[in-house]
Design a protein that fits this description.
With 140 residues, this protein is an alpha/beta fold. The chain is globular, with a radius of gyration of 15 Å. The chain is built from six helices and seven strands; from the N terminus they run αββαββαβαββαα. Pfam families: CBS (PF00571).
Amino acid sequence: MTTALDIMHPGAMCVGERESLTDAARIMREQDIGALPICGDDDVLVGILTDRDIVLKCVAEKRDPSEVTCGELAMGRPQIIEGDEQIERVLELMEEYRVRRLPVIDHPAHRLIGMITEADVARHLPQERVAEFVSAVCCD
């Protein structure tokens, strides 16, 4: 059976909660990604920052991204999955919570080890199941 470990992007990079949004945006540009996990000083995941968050919650509000920290935008507790969970559980979580990115953690250390995105899911599922997934995650 396929697990989260099998489909994730390994080695997901965290941005520190005290780092500025400017720093996060630079990392996103360099890595060609649209989201970064936010980790606290203890390396525990505290949120996920998207490029959309930076635009809507900082730039559009005329705040200075060099003065706003990533932690300020870390809202709520992110959905996570353990690496040994089956792909069906990955889909259940992403569909239920309508998330497009899912951090993968190592158990029992609870450290970030990877990320699963919609593209990862699409590469590992039959076309019919991908259509169901996209409809559940993206549409009203």
